[in-house]
Amino acid sequence: MELWKISLDKYNTNDNKKYExxxxxxxxxxxxxxxxxxxxxxxxxxxxxxIFDKSQSQVTEIVNxxxxxxxxxxxxxEKVDIDECDLYSFKRELDMHNGVLQMKxxxxxxxxxxxxxxxxxxxxxxxxxxxxxKYEITPLNFDGxxxxxxxxxxxxxxxxxxxxNKTKHFKVKNIYDSNPGIxxxxxxxxxxxxxxxxTTLMGENNKGNIFKNRRYSEFGEVVSEVYETFMSEGKTETxxxxxxxxxxxxxxxxxxxxGTKELKDFIKEGYEAEVEAxxxxxxxxxxxxxxxxxxxxxxxxxxxxxLFQLSASAYAGDTTVSIAAKGLHGEGYKGHVFWDTxxxxxxxxxxxxxxxxxxxxxxxxxxxxxxxxNAAITGYKGARFAWEAADDGLEVTPxxxxxxxxxxxxxxxxxxxxxxxxxxxxGIVEYYRATNDKEFxxxxxxxxxxxxxxxxxxxxxxxxxxxxxEISSVIGPDEFHEHVDNNVFTNYLAKWNIEKxxxxxxxxKTEDNVNYKVLCSKLGLNEEDFNMxxxxxxxxxxxxxxxxMIIEQFEGYFDLEDIEIEEYDENEMPVWPDFKGNxxxxxxxxxxxxxxxxxxxxxEEFSEAVKKANYEYYEKRTMHxxxxxxxxxxxxxxxxxxxxxxxxxxxxxIYTDLEDNQGNTDFGLHAAAAGGSWQSAIFGFVGxxxxxxxxxxxxxxxxxxxxxxxxxxNWKSSRIGISxxxxxxxxxxxxxATVIIYDKSYLISDKKQLVVAR
Amino acid sequence: MELWKISLDKYNTNDNKKYExxxxxxxxxxxxxxxxxxxxxxxxxxxxxxIFDKSQSQVTEIVNxxxxxxxxxxxxxEKVDIDECDLYSFKRELDMHNGVLQMKxxxxxxxxxxxxxxxxxxxxxxxxxxxxxKYEITPLNFDGxxxxxxxxxxxxxxxxxxxxNKTKHFKVKNIYDSNPGIxxxxxxxxxxxxxxxxTTLMGENNKGNIFKNRRYSEFGEVVSEVYETFMSEGKTETxxxxxxxxxxxxxxxxxxxxGTKELKDFIKEGYEAEVEAxxxxxxxxxxxxxxxxxxxxxxxxxxxxxLFQLSASAYAGDTTVSIAAKGLHGEGYKGHVFWDTxxxxxxxxxxxxxxxxxxxxxxxxxxxxxxxxNAAITGYKGARFAWEAADDGLEVTPxxxxxxxxxxxxxxxxxxxxxxxxxxxxGIVEYYRATNDKEFxxxxxxxxxxxxxxxxxxxxxxxxxxxxxEISSVIGPDEFHEHVDNNVFTNYLAKWNIEKxxxxxxxxKTEDNVNYKVLCSKLGLNEEDFNMxxxxxxxxxxxxxxxxMIIEQFEGYFDLEDIEIEEYDENEMPVWPDFKGNxxxxxxxxxxxxxxxxxxxxxEEFSEAVKKANYEYYEKRTMHxxxxxxxxxxxxxxxxxxxxxxxxxxxxxIYTDLEDNQGNTDFGLHAAAAGGSWQSAIFGFVGxxxxxxxxxxxxxxxxxxxxxxxxxxNWKSSRIGISxxxxxxxxxxxxxATVIIYDKSYLISDKKQLVVAR
Lengths: 758, 758
Known about the structure:
The structure is a homodimer of 758-residue chains.
Chain A: E1 5-8, H1 16-22, E2 25-26, E3 30-32, E4 46-48, E5 52-53, E6 61-62, E7 71-75, E8 78-79, E9 86-95, E10 100-108, E11 114-123, E12 130-139, E13 144-153, E14 170-176, E15 182-188, E16 194-205, E17 208-209, E18 211-219, E19 222-231, E20 237-247, H2 255-269, H3 271-289, E21 291-294, H4 297-312, H5 340-352, H6 354-366, H7 368-377, E22 400-402, E23 408-410, H8 413-416, H9 420-435, H10 438-459, E24 461-463, E25 468-470, H11 488-511, H12 513-523, H13 527-539, H14 595-601, H15 608-619, H16 629-639, H17 646-654, H18 671-685, E26 689-690, E27 696-698, E28 708-715, E29 718-725, E30 728-733, E31 737-741, E32 744-748, E33 754-757
Parallel strand pairs in A: 27-31
Antiparallel strand pairs in A: 1-9, 2-3, 3-4, 5-6, 7-8, 7-13, 9-10, 10-11, 11-12, 12-20, 13-19, 14-15, 15-16, 16-17, 16-20, 18-19, 21-28, 22-23, 24-25, 26-27, 28-29, 29-30, 30-33, 31-32
């Protein structure tokens, strides 16, 4: 059971922000940071996916909404403030199996009153507007009056920790002494989106209602209700806080009427029924997503944390939102969506929860107009997806940031990191390849493939002297090097993007000719364009070493000062070598996988020898300054037979947040690292990949201490279970399927387990 | 110099509230609790005298207004929060001589940045709308960006510590990016009184303005401006925060226009000029109020604290406000005015700052209509002053409170503590006796004396059987006994009140006959009434012991269980004796001086023998459960020759707040104890009193360790300086005056010092 729990046994105020992130409860629609009710320290956060606002901040950002968590216990005239009490038996636990956050502690106030408090909280996956908390309160050495305050705080801002960027994105619109409970609605400044929080308390024991009096108050932007009760030594009283959170983001509605009805229904159905329905859903999700690791408890808990929080960040119910770089777990990167989604997180969803993967891709389809506007604004054609996107797909990358030394620096990624377009095309093709979802491809996917290809058509530059197509002044995944020409990751994927557009347009022409014609008409594409695309794919410039073995990351990269990493710290992470007076961009040092990233995304496109040569070259030059890098190198290493770093990088990836090894877990989940963790296990250790012919391959290698690894994936119309132990591999499938194991092909029959010796 | 300072050398978050009270800066018009800018813990308070509101609270209360103190320093991305930094060299000091609050400390942030911060703050007595703070900031081990945030917080409520009574008394009306600075106006809920706070920062060094950027923000009920600057190791930068606080309580005005103009003027004149003008005024006030004690530093500092904070609570500029029981220092007793003002505080002002005493009495005159309404509502005639009064004189005593055990109890003081009427009459007569201010007496004082007498006329009950006037069902100063009949303090002072009304009405008839007639007409009084009054004074029932020596506190008191105090704690304060199963009100135990109080107020009315007998009887039955009691018993003890408790009681009185010996300094100053401290020194040790013939007497006795005591008083048109040392008494006077010293009469000539041997 402990293998399902993230625990905190020692309270330290300074860790509050970190645990708010780790203990966030999210259901895809909204995220509620795991704030501790009884401390005022931290950065509380309540986000609804897709509610963005700019106001006077530099760029549009996810709105930190009114906080519904407010809950205070007063023992007579003393507030139970965890930072001012003596604490005993403190424990917080995230029960990932059931999706419930638990806490208990004994606090002794300054006047010597001791009380045991147990709480649990959940944000429902059953009805996404519902959340609740249950408090069990036991006086340990007194009888007396206890006051319970329930409040909603509308004084919330974004970026509370950053005084020059702190912004309030909404106005408190209405405050209600609703019946039941209290409610507070807000309206965002720019788009006038309204959201409501309604909450109330119910306290009952075997004699009925335990509350004697209620006092309702409005304090400016705060609404409060206080209940008076009498508690007796040794007697536990249970109080349930019911909450409803809805917005009119999608449907304009009478929030207070609807919310009041929903709150009444929730109370009627009761806490226990809802938490049970909620946990059932989580347990079903676990059947789809779990990776069981035998013989390594630390790895087991760690991987589950990543799968849990990544799954919590999305659901199939909303096709207008995607997963932010920091999930629904914090305000880092402003709640923006990056290539992180398609390249790092999407594979997990494609292979475990394809309906969610589809919803994520639909976000890109639903923001295509924004992408078209981005292209038009910057002088190009087709669709140019934003490097950072929010609600409408328009580019929202900040133009200015702060470097390691606190100096203002111009951020060029929004101008130059074009590869996002191909990354999205990659996601579409990967999704279709694994799911065979023709409906998606026909109605949405191909339109994106064609319009991104059209963008590349307008973006590439023809070099007459060399008779080749080039893309100059870009940034690749390795952001240490800006304004580079012919970054291979960019060029190769642009070429690939166009190839896939050509391939699927041909396919569509046959499959659904009417749709094909409508689409060509809509996008203004004709045979002339397609001929041009053919030429471009043939003549795209891919810089290489003279022997044709090593891809040159970008044109001129090999001419830079060649500095190799020679020292590694106690965690075996690279130590900065001496730059010899050069600027970072003047060296061959990389921030993260770039050429390697390409080979991980398209393994079927490169020979084993080329992959190995490039891995060996670039691995010694990569500083892993992105949380995305270690997991990718572990996959690549395993693919080329270098196993020595695989486990270390895997553990580093899965403990990115749990051990806060980037130092910024306070600001949200490293959602891409979470996706990378899944990839590292499945694409890395299991060696799962799809070959050129579209057949599933596995090629497992497990770390010495692992006794077994098992998981399920969706593949086309099948659900395939794979279990790897020291001496054998067991595979079953709901439908007939072909799987190549260690280069040998097996046909798995429906409901018959295949066992292959290792 | 240290004898002028209250110092705190060790920071403890838990003491913040207490020091907010002790370090309050007030100028009679407004009080700003001494909150520490760099801590979020405490109960900040900003009060303007006379701004009251009820809203949903139980009774009308002083409004805790928007907080203008907001000031944060961010070293790069770290806020200097004193509760989260390592602290060195911490010191706060209240410089009472200059009326300036100072602080300095060195803080080291979590990231290891050390900074020295020095601040001083004042609330101007020169222009009461002005306040300012000066910050000197020195980076000790870094160069870097520093952000300074200035903000005004409109999210303030009253009773933040009391969840069932927490109330917000205003709405935030407007928020301004004013030029200069920021501003926030509020409007009270009931009476729509508006007030504005405007503040801004100025940072200059020898190169000019040190600020690089400014960011203005509105966060709901908070307005903020942040300035960016760069600071260098070892280099001190000075930042001044200028503030303007005005309300339209008295004059409706365009607050933002007026405030902006005032803020500009203030900046133009500058911090140094204003603090100098302010300190000059304080030093002049000290010339009037100081009591110098040689040979006892603790007593010297202690008495000065009381004189300082009492003087800070009032000024002559507003005749519509009085001093609340807790000064302008906190929300205890809701900012209400009690008998505390006239009986405990007023003598200090009468003898040191008679113009302020007059303003305080004018508050009673200006709320006479409220007093008349109180009488009418309760079925009486004339004026019935409220036991607790706020802005309009109407009775605002809460009807319900909480006893020692936290149970709800009905509070009867507002219904039964009638003696407040005579206490105010006493203040008027005492003021006139010392000042000879005929203008006040003719135009205001006599009207109060007559209308309170008229109240008594309607209140007393004629007992036909005994042919006497009685007053049944009252509460005297000793609140342990409720619903008692013929409390002597009440009856005696009612009689005295009527006598004084008769005396001064006769005086007025001669002095200003027109005014006399107008007044009789206005108040509906005629000779029949006056005859009735004569009879009442003759036949007022004063219960006595059979031998006529001991006054019976109230009818039947001697029949109660007679329990004497037998044990005293380590502070020589009474230990509760065994009640033997009785309720407190069924015993002879007293909360505070009652019969003794009467004899202190009217010493000339009782013989030495009677005073001594009563002192001896009641002292052993008095629990001193009011902060007013010890100082009174020290005076009474000295008057009857019992010196053994005098010093102990005096020190207890003057350290009421400094040592928080009532345990509630958090909620405000014990203003009556402050007044009692002055009385204890002057009426007690100096033995100053006015005899029946109206001649000033002194009869000094000093504690052994005191080498000398000196002070000044105003007496009629003279200013008399008195200096007492071990072997002599020196007296001088600005005009000719008669003073009786140790029962011998001296005529002091103008400008010639009288020396009398001891």
